[in-house]
Amino acid sequence: MKKVTIAVILAICIAVSGCAGMSDTEKRTLGGTGIGAAAGGLIGSMGGNFGWGAAIGAAAGAAGGYLYDQHEKSKESAYQQGYQAGQQNSNKSQ
Asked: The pTM is what?
């Protein structure tokens, strides 16, 4: 049990440190892929085919992570546009 715990902690540390140089899009897509693969693997193992479940889950998770990233970028862009418009209006009124 102790060896398994150490192996899991080591794997998590390696996975987290590997994300240091990634863009937000890459992080979100990779995170979605991992979550999708895990969920798909669990569902697939209930149905008798872990591999297909994990593969389909990974593909769906990657697509979901990418779409989430695009949504977050559009929110940030809208915020920046609103902020700049507010700054310009504030400067005009002074």
From this structure: 0.69
